[in-house]
UniProtKB/TrEMBL annotation:
SUPFAM superfamilies: UDP-Glycosyltransferase/glycogen phosphorylase (SSF53756). Its main location: cytoplasm. It is an enzyme of class 2 (transferase). Gene3D superfamilies: Glycogen Phosphorylase B. It comes from Sphingomonas lenta. One of its GO terms (molecular function) is glycogen phosphorylase activity. It is found in: Cytoplasm. Allosteric enzyme that catalyzes the rate-limiting step in glycogen catabolism, the phosphorolytic cleavage of glycogen to produce glucose-1-phosphate, and plays a central role in maintaining cellular and organismal glucose homeostasis. Phosphorylase is an important allosteric enzyme in carbohydrate metabolism. Enzymes from different sources differ in their regulatory mechanisms and in their natural substrates. However, all known phosphorylases share catalytic and structural properties. InterPro entries: Glycg_phsphrylas, Glyco_trans_35, Pyridoxal_P_attach_site. One of its GO terms (biological process) is glycogen catabolic process. Its EC number is 2.4.1.1. GO terms for cellular component: cytoplasm. It catalyses: [(1->4)-alpha-D-glucosyl](n) + phosphate = [(1->4)-alpha-D-glucosyl](n-1) + alpha-D-glucose 1-phosphate. This is Alpha-1,4 glucan phosphorylase.
Length: 813
C-alpha cells in the first residue's frame, strides 16, 4: 500500500451506513481535503453540494443533448437580475432526494437543515423583477423547455442590511467568500465586448466598428433543476476579464497600478448590482454593464445557432429571446449589428429577423423609472449601435407617418427623446425591436396601452399582450412550508405538486372543521418557528397566538409602508385610549431594503424602528401590539416569514405596482390579503372571492383623476381625526424624542403633495383593518378563508405563466 495514501477517515461512530454517505465522505476527503473530524459545517455543505451535483450534471448533459438532437427551438431569458437565493434545498427537493440525503448526512452526524442554513443566499437582484427571473428559470426546466438564463455574475450582489440604532447600514455581501460549488467557469465560451472607438466604412461599403477598448466576457454556468429533475437548464452569468490582465512593460517599469489598470476596469464591470429603486442610475458604468452582458449573450446565442443550424437567417425559428425589462434592450441593436456587419445581411432582412426573435417584458410605467441614456454618452460608448438606432428610428417613424400619426404621436414614438437633452429611449427601442411586448398583470397591461405606450400601441396594435406573473410553488410552498404540504397531500393527494391548479380540489373541504384545525396547527407551528428565530436573532418575544400582520418587500414610497406605519400609530393611540376594548393582539412585521440613495425610504425604516421601540416597551399596550423590523430581507428570510403570516399587506397606490409576486406567495401559504386594487391583487381577488380578501382604497382610475383634478391632502388629513393625530404625533417627535424634528419633512410631504395618496386612502385602510379584526375574531371563518386562499391561487404558479409565454410569445409549446 502506498505510504502516502490517506489514513482511514471515518471514525467508528461515523461509519457510513449507505453508499450515499460513502460518496459524501469521499467527496469531503478528496475534493475538500478534510476528514470527518476536521470538517467544519461549510466543508460538509460543499461536500454535499458536490455530491448532489454529480447527479445534476448527468441530467444537465442529457438535457442539452436531447435539445440538440431534436433540433429544438431554444428560449433565452436575458435579465440583469436573478434573485435565486439558496440552491441546495431547492435542488435536492426537485430531484426527490431530500429524505435520502437527510439520512445519509445524519449517519455522518450532520444535520441537513443546519448546513442548508449556512449556504450563502445568492442575491444577484434587487427584488421582484430578479425573483421573477429565478422562478421562471425553475418553471422553464419544469416544463422541459430548453432554456438559458443570461445575466451578470456580480461579485457583490445586493448589499447586506444591518440596522444600527434603527438606521439602515449597507454592507457588502460576500456570497462568494467560501467559493461557489454550484458554478462552472467555461473558459472556452469567451467573447470580446468592445466599447468606444469609431466606425469606418470598408471598401465593400460595409460599416466596420473599431472599438477603442475591449474586455473579455467569460461564461460561468449554474444548473437550474426542474421539478422531479426532468430537465436541467443553464443559468449563464458573465464575468469579465481584461484581454491583457497585466501590462508587463508598465509593471517592470515599476508602475504597478497602471500595469493592472485594465484588469481593474474589467472587474469593475461585474462588481456591483445597481439599485433598481433609485432614480435611473445615470452612471456610465450601468450602460457598460448592460451592453457587456447583452453583447456577450447575443454573440453566444448567434454562435450556437449558426453552429447547430448553419444559417443565421433561421434564427427566429430556433431562438426566442425575452428581454426582462429594458436593461438588455441594447441587445436589439447588437443583434442588428451582428446580422448586418458580420453576417452581411441587408437592413430589412436583419430587422425582420430581429423582430421575429425578441420579446420584451415591461415592468414599470413610472416615468422616472423608464430607462433612457444621454445621446452623447451612448454615441461615445456605442457609436455603431447609435447609427443603427437612427436607422431603426427612421424606419419606425416612416411607418408611423404612413399610418397617420401626427407630430405629437411621432415625438412619443421616436426612439430619441428630443425634449431638452437628447436621450435614447430604451423602452421604445425594445418595443420597436420585438414582436411581443407584455405587461405582467391585467391592469398593468391595460395601463401600458393607455399611457406610456399609447401611440406605439396604436401603431402596432397586435404587439401588447398580458402575462400575469407567477411564482414557483416548489420553493414557495413545498420547500418553505412542508407542514402545510403534508396536510394538503393527505386531503387532495399529491397531484397539486405537479399541477398547482389542482389545489382547487381543496375548495370542497374548506368548511371541514378537522382540516381547518390542521391548517391552523401548521400555521401556529410556523409562527412559533419564526418567533424562536426572532428570539435568537433579535432578542424579541412574540406571542404566536397574535395576528401576524406582515409587510415585507423593498421599501418604496409607492408600496406605502408609511401608510401601514401611520395606521399602526393610530391603532396604538386607540389601544392606549381604550384599553378596555376587546383588542385582538397583533404583531406588525416589516422587512425590506431601501436603495442606498433613497432618503425617504431610509427614513421610513428608521420610523418603523422608532415606533417599534416605543410601542414594544409601553406597558399600556402590553401584548396587544408589537412592531418588528427584521433586518436583511432576502429570499431565505422570505421563506421563513411567509409561512408564518396571517395577514399579507399589499397596499401600493393603485396603478403603481405592476404586478407584485409577494402577494401570491402569501396567499398560497394561507394568509389573507389586505390590499388595494392594484397589480395582481385584482386577479387574486377575482380568484379567491370578495369574502376571502380585504380590499380598500382608491382605484387606479380614481388616483389618476384625483391627481389630474388637484388633490388637496391637507383637507383629507384635517378631515380625519385618527390620521391627523397620528401624523401630528410622528411630526412632533413622539417616537423620536432624541430628535423631535426627524420626521417633520416626511410628514410635511403628506400635507404638501402626498403623491402616493397616503392621506387619501387612510380612512379606508383604517376601516379595512378593523374589518380584519372582526374576521380574525371569527376564527372558523378566518380559517375557512385561509383555505380558500390556498385553494384558489394555484393559477399564480409560474408554470402557468411560462406555459403562456411558451405558447403565445416563444412558439415552443
Ligand atoms: C417575492 C420577493 C420580492 C417581491 O415582493 P413584492 O411584494 O412583490 O414587492 C422581493 N424580494 C424578495 C426576496 C422576494 O422573495
Amino acid at each position: 500500500m502506498n505510504a502516502l495514501a490517506p489514513a482511514p477517515v471515518a471514525p467508528q461512530t461515523h461509519a457510513p451506513a449507505d453508499p450515499l454517505a460513502e460518496q459524501i465522505l469521499d467527496t469531503l476527503v478528496h475534493r475538500i481535503g478534510k476528514d470527518a473530524q476536521a470538517a467544519r459545517p461549510h466543508d460538509w455543505l460543499a461536500a454535499t453540494i458536490l455530491t448532489v451535483r454529480n447527479d445534476i450534471i448527468e441530467r444537465w448533459m442529457a438535457s442539452t443533448k436531447a435539445a440538440h438532437a431534436a433540433g429544438a427551438k431554444r428560449v433565452y431569458y436575458l435579465s440583469l437580475e436573478f434573485l435565486i437565493g439558496r440552491l441546495l434545498r431547492d435542488a435536492i427537493a426537485n430531484l426527490g432526494r431530500t429524505d435520502e440525503i437527510t439520512r445519509a448526512l445524519a449517519s455522518l452526524g450532520v444535520d441537513l437543515a443546519e448546513i442548508e442554513e449556512i449556504e450563502p443566499d445568492a442575491a444577484l437582484g434587487n427584488g421582484g423583477l430578479g425573483r421573477l427571473a429565478a422562478c421562471f428559470m425553475e418553471s422553464m426546466a419544469t416544463l422541459e423547455l430548453p432554456a438559458y438564463g443570461y445575466g451578470i455574475r456580480y461579485v457583490n450582489g445586493m448589499f447586506r442590511q444591518r440596522i444600527d440604532d434603527g438606521w439602515q447600514v449597507e454592507l457588502p455581501e460576500t456570497w462568494l467568500a467560501h467559493g461557489n460549488p454550484w458554478e462552472f467557469e467555461r473558459r472556452e465560451s469567451a467573447y470580446l465586448v468592445g466599447f468606444g472607438g469609431e466606425v469606418e466604412t470598408t471598401d465593400a461599403g460595409r460599416a466596420h466598428w473599431k472599438p477603442a477598448e475591449a474586455v473579455q466576457a467569460i461564461a460561468v454556468d449554474t444548473p437550474a433543476v426542474g421539478w422531479r429533475g426532468k430537465r436541467v437548464n443553464t443559468l449563464r452569468l458573465w464575468t469579465a476579464r481584461a484581454l491583457d490582465p497585466i501590462r508587463l512593460d508598465a509593471f517592470n517599469a515599476g508602475d504597478h497600478e497602471r500595469a493592472l489598470q485594465g484588469q481593474v476596469r474589467a472587474e469593475t464591470l461585474v462588481r456591483v448590482l445597481y439599485p433598481a429603486d433609485s432614480t435611473p442610475a445615470g452612471q456610465e458604468l450601468r450602460l457598460r454593464q448592460e451592453y457587456f452582458f447583452s453583447s456577450a449573450s447575443i454573440q453566444d446565442i448567434v454562435r450556437r445557432h449558426v453552429q447547430y443550424f448553419g444559417d443565421v437567417r433561421t434564427l427566429p425559428d430556433k431562438a426566442a429571446i425575452q428581454l426582462n425589462d429594458t436593461h438588455p434592450a441594447v441587445s436589439v441593436a447588437e443583434l442588428m449589428r451582428l446580422l448586418i456587419d458580420h453576417h452581411e445581411l441587408d437592413f430589412d432582412e436583419a430587422w425582420e429577423i430581429t423582430k421575429g426573435t425578441f420579446g420584451y417584458t415591461n415592468h414599470t410605467l413610472l416615468p422616472e423609472a423608464l430607462e433612457s441614456w444621454p445621446l452623447p454618452l451612448f454615441e461615445r460608448m456605442l457609436p455603431r449601435h447609435m447609427q443603427l438606432i437612427y436607422a431603426i428610428n427612421a424606419r419606425v417613424l416612416r411607418e408611423a407617418r404612413r399610418s397617420g400619426a401626427d407630430d405629437r404621436a411621432v415625438s412619443t414614438i421616436s426612439l430619441i427623446d428630443e425634449g431638452g437633452e437628447r436621450r435614447v429611449r430604451m423602452a421604445n427601442l425594445a418595443f420597436a425591436g420585438s414582436h411581443s411586448v407584455n405587461g405582467v398583470a391585467a391592469l398593468h397591461t391595460d395601463l401600458m396601452k393607455q399611457t406610456v405606450f399609447a401611440d406605439l400601441h396604436r401603431l402596432y396594435p397586435e404587439r401588447i399582450n398580458n402575462k400575469t406573473n407567477g411564482i414557483t410553488p416548489r420553493r414557495w410552498l413545498q420547500q418553505c412550508n412542508p407542514g402545510l404540504c403534508g396536510i394538503l397531500s393527505d386531503v387532495i393527494g399529491p397531484g397539486f405538486l405537479d399541477d398547482a391548479e389542482k389545489l382547487s380540489e381543496l375548495n370542497a373541504h374548506a368548511g371541514d372543521a378537522a382540516l381547518q384545525e390542521h391548517v391552523a396547527g401548521v400555521k401556529r407551528a410556523n409562527k412559533e418557528a419564526l418567533s424562536s428565530f426572532l428570539r435568537d436573532r433579535m432578542k424579541l418575544r412574540l406571542d404566536p397566538d397574535a395576528l401576524f400582520d406582515v409587510q415585507i418587500k423593498r421599501i418604496h414610497e409607492y408600496k406605502r409602508q408609511l401608510l401601514n406605519l401611520v395606521e399602526t400609530v393610530a391603532l396604538y393611540d386607540q389601544i392606549r385610549s381604550h384599553p378596555e376594548r376587546d383588542w385582538s393582539p397583533r404583531v406588525k412585521i416589516f422587512a425590506g431594503k431601501a436603495a442606498s440613495s433613497y432618503h425617504n425610504a431610509k427614513l421610513i425604516i428608521k420610523l418603523a424602528n422608532d415606533i417599534a421601540r416605543r410601542v414594544n416597551t409601553d406597558p399600556a399596550v402590553g401584548e396587544l401590539l408589537k412592531v418588528v423590523f427584521i433586518p436583511n430581507y432576502n429570499v431565505s428570510l422570505a421563506e421563513k416569514i411567509i409561512p408564518a403570516a396571517d395577514l399579507s399587506e399589499q397596499i401600493s397606490t393603485a396603478g403603481m405596482e405592476a404586478s407584485g409576486t409577494g402577494n401570491m406567495k402569501f396567499a398560497l401559504n394561507g394568509a389573507l390579503t389586505i390590499g388595494t386594487l392594484d397589480g395582481a391583487n385584482i386577479e387574486i381577488k377575482d380568484r379567491v372571492g370578495d369574502e376571502n380578501i380585504v380590499i380598500f382604497g382608491l382605484t387606479a382610475e380614481e388616483v389618476a383623476a384625483k391627481r389630474a383634478n388637484g388633490y388637496v391632502p391637507r383637507a383629507m388629513i384635517e378631515g380625519s381625526r385618527e390620521l391627523a393625530q397620528a401624523v401630528k404625533a410622528i411630526a412632533t417627535g413622539v417616537f423620536s424624542p432624541d430628535d423631535p424634528h426627524r420626521y417633520r419633512d416626511l410628514m410635511n410631504g403628506l400635507y404638501d403633495h402626498d403623491w402616493f395618496m397616503v392621506a387619501a386612502d387612510f380612512d379606508a385602510y383604517h376601516s379595512a383593518q378593523r374589518e380584519v379584526d372582526r374576521r380574525w375574531g371569527d376564527q372558523p371563518g378566518w380559517r375557512a378563508s385561509a383555505i380558500r386562499n390556498i385553494a384558489n391561487v394555484g393559477w399564480f404558479s409560474s408554470d402557468r405563466t411560462i406555459a403562456e409565454y411558451a405558447r403565445d410569445i416563444w412558439g415552443v409549446m
